[in-house]
TrEMBL record:
It comes from the Bacteria. Keywords: Cytoplasm, Methyltransferase, rRNA processing, S-adenosyl-L-methionine, Transferase. InterPro entries: rRNA_ssu_MeTfrase_G (IPR003682), SAM-dependent_MTases_sf (IPR029063). S-adenosyl-L-methionine binds at G79, L84, E102, A103, T104, A130, E131, R149. This is Ribosomal RNA small subunit methyltransferase G. GO terms for cellular component: cytosol. The keyword Cell wall biogenesis/degradation does not apply. Its EC number is 2.1.1.-. The gene is rsmG. It holds the Pfam family GidB. It is an enzyme of class 2 (transferase). Specifically methylates the N7 position of a guanine in 16S rRNA.
Length: 248
């Protein structure tokens, strides 16, 4: 069964336009062992390998459909949790620098262990809230791509993430179904932050592996400078989201 699962991951990667060699598959295996074995942190809430690979690894790799992610030299994963999608992306894009941003310290302990045990070079773990870290000179305005999966609604994700991007960089928000209102509010928030909604891309199905998930990549590109007042204080983006009536 194990072999089949890794073959499925390879097949999905091919559908997304790249091949996974043995070394990379070995890293995914090791990462899966860590995620499934680290009960204290319950970092993904999944207990079986097949679900982990289909629901989390394949989905994480889908952001590589966006050219800005395939070419990025410096990538941030905001609200990384157990390392998704940042760790899978780093395994594939081994030359890229990756910063995993995570508010919960016990998850950061796990992330540091993953980085060490997989021998991932050029990966930093930053324990803190995005709203605070995005004010640091060594993190603000630097990244070619910011990835966000399962963290918050689009306007909130935009305020957490756009400040980290350099001009021309892309935010990829990895979403399931998204309502028209969320998308409109996200687009308005992006404009306020010096960015713009570029596209909403459907993730293709991989027969027998990744089906019926209705996953989308919302791509927001930074076009200017984010005003210094953003992100607002920790907690405010969620309480009063930009782009929503009564928000900003
Ligand atoms: C539901 S988990 C998703 C984790 C991972 N991205 C995934 O797809 O499995 C959301 C994570 O975002 C983190 N988070 C939420 N708000 C945050 C913020 N403002 N700054 C940094 N991390 C945040 C939480 O601690 C949590 O680990």
């Amino acid at each position: 069964m194990k072999r089949e699962v890794w073959e499925e991951l390879r097949e999905a990667a091919r559908c997304f336009g790249f091949d996974l060699d043995r070394r990379r598959l070995g890293l995914f295996e090791r990462y899966a062992d860590l995620l499934l074995g680290y009960r204290e942190a319950n970092v993904v809430g999944v207990r079986d390998l097949r679900t982990l690979v289909r629901k989390h690894f394949v989905d994480s790799l889908s952001c590589l459909l966006v050219e800005g992610v395939r070419r990025a030299g410096l990538i941030a994963d905001v609200g990384s949790g157990g390392g998704l999608p940042g760790v899978p992306v780093k395994i594939v894009r081994s030359g890229a620098g990756v910063v995993l941003i995570e508010a919960t310290s016990r998850k950061c302990v796990f992330l540091r262990r993953v980085v060490e045990e997989l021998g991932l070079e050029g990966v930093e773990v930053e324990n803190g809230r995005a709203e605070e870290l995005a004010r640091r000179d060594d993190l603000r305005g630097l990244f070619d791509a910011v990835l966000v999966r399962a963290v918050a609604e689009l306007p909130v994700v935009a305020e957490y993430s756009v400040p980290f991007l350099r001009e021309g960089g892309v935010l990829v928000a990895m979403k399931g179904r998204i309502s028209g209102e969320e998308l409109t509010a996200g687009a308005l928030a992006a404009t306020e932050l010096g960015a713009g909604l570029e596209e909403v891309r459907e993730v293709p199905e991989v027969p027998g592996v990744f089906e019926g998930m209705e996953r989308r990549l919302v791509v927001i590109r930074k076009m200017g400078v984010t005003p210094a007042r953003y992100p607002r204080r920790a907690g405010v983006p969620r309480k009063r989201p930009l782009g929503v009536t009564g928000g900003s």
